Amino acid sequence: MEREPSSRESDGVPSPVQAIKILVVDDDAGICDLLETVLTKDGFEVKTLRDPTLAPGEIRGGGYHLCLLDIMMPKQDGIETLTAIRGEDTDLGVIVITGYPSLETAVQSMQLDALDYLRKPFTVEELRNVVARAMKKKGLTRAPEEQLHRVIGETIRNLRKEKALTLKQMAKRTGLSVSLLSQIERAESSASISSLYKIAVALDTRIQELFGEF
Hints:
Structural class: alpha/beta
CATH topology of the largest domain: Rossmann fold
Shape: elongated
Distance between the termini: 29 Å
CATH superfamily of the largest domain: Response regulator
Number of helices: 10
Helix content: 40-55%
Number of strands: 5
CATH class of the largest domain: Alpha Beta
CATH architecture of the largest domain: 3-Layer(aba) Sandwich
Strand content: 5-15%
Radius of gyration: 20 Å
């Protein structure tokens, strides 16, 4: 099995990464766990709150970039919470989450400068898309190296699916392990130039094409 050296191993110095901090405010423990698991895996620094009355104080000193906020909560609903949040931070990117969408709450949310509106139940892909849109609107970026790994992984996965190839078939063509290929596609492992060349040949494309529009 081929082992890919990490960026830290290759130069002995850890690469700087901008920590994008996200606060999740939702009284549903299951939703909090799901969001924390997915977003943490995606490289974000995540904290969850099930009591919305604690959100303004947390934001006051937390240095958060984004907030995912449920609308329907006991003690204090999402609109009241968002109003209180705006009293602490007028620039925080807020994504409103609700299982009971209505025109009234949508209008109220936008009046309080919410960036987007995510309806329950949502898929992981929908969650990632709305977070990506919010980051773009707020001008938030990750470390260039992390962005590059994500672009390469997505490009490889899309090309593989276009050619109707499985990871097992790719492993046979490249001599790389299924585990490593999967990690590269999910941007969990950086690929060496040698590995990228093997993948490009297997996909009948130029290695430059794997870098997408980065």
